[in-house]
Prior knowledge:
- By secondary structure, the chain is an alpha/beta fold.
- It contains ten helices and twelve strands.
- The protein has helices at 11-20, 42-52, 66-69, 73-94, 126-141, 161-171, 188-206, 232-246, 278-283, 291-301, and strands at 3-5, 29-31, 56-59, 97-103, 145-150, 153-154, 174-178, 182-183, 186-187, 220-223, 230-231, 254-258.
- A six-stranded parallel beta sheet has the order 2-1-3-4-5-10, with helices on both faces. A two-stranded parallel sheet has the order 6-9.
Amino acid sequence: MRIFLTGKLGQVGGELLKTLSPLAPLGEFVATDLPELNLTDEAELRRALREARPRWIVNPAAYTAVDQAEREPELAYAINRNTVRVIGEEARALDAGVIHFSTDYVFDGTKREPYCEGDAPAPLNVYGASKLAGEQALAASGAPFLIFRTSWVYGATGKNFLLTILRLAREREELRIVSDQHGAPTWSRDLARLAAHAISRVESMTAGGSLSESANNWSGLYHAAGAGETTWHGFAAEAVRLAAERAPETRFARIAAITTAEYPTPAKRPLNSRLCCVKLAAGMEWSMMNWRDSLREVMAEL
């Protein structure tokens, strides 16, 4: 069972690299990133996939600079839509399964309850629109797929909100953090474990047979975000509280609550990023970790 992984240097990709490699026999795990593979070069990507001939293509690679995407929409769409379209087309030809990660930013955040998979997307920014376009391109490709929409991804490595807050909390007297955007932080390792679980579950269902022939039994879109809910302010405050417990001699910044209006950004953010993960529990028999529990584990690694 050969697995082809993109974005191995990213925070989700790095966790997938460690979690998925044991699933493939020796020499059957192909992991790529820049400069080895330029995902915006369609011919290069097609050639790499055809040479690898994987059973599974796992794609965490994405353009994730939300504000910068407003200035670089072409590049955002090239990576978040066009790359996914090519992966889907090649997967269909190879009878390969695709695992792809998307975002809560496909929604406008106006719903009062957590968003379900059947709710109509309405992205507020280029990043969200480009990720939605990627979802649609993969679904239209005819390849068997699993799309996991997630939110507020973080971990012990890479560039993310948690690591930025912990650094700034040691440098400043006060941090002003938005408190009216609601969602759930999601640990990158939990997503990697989900992907490994999903592959194992599908393989047990297909017994090594054609993935496309069994796609009706498993292929589709799932919400996969940390359990529970908080705000960016709540996330930051809990992280700093845990850091202070570990280093009581260190002085940390005060975490002040502000509104979204008080912190304007080039890209609009949804006020409600909560995702309902009931379908994931029923269809994949998987429950995401509560964000408080995963935060404690991540903090223990820092």
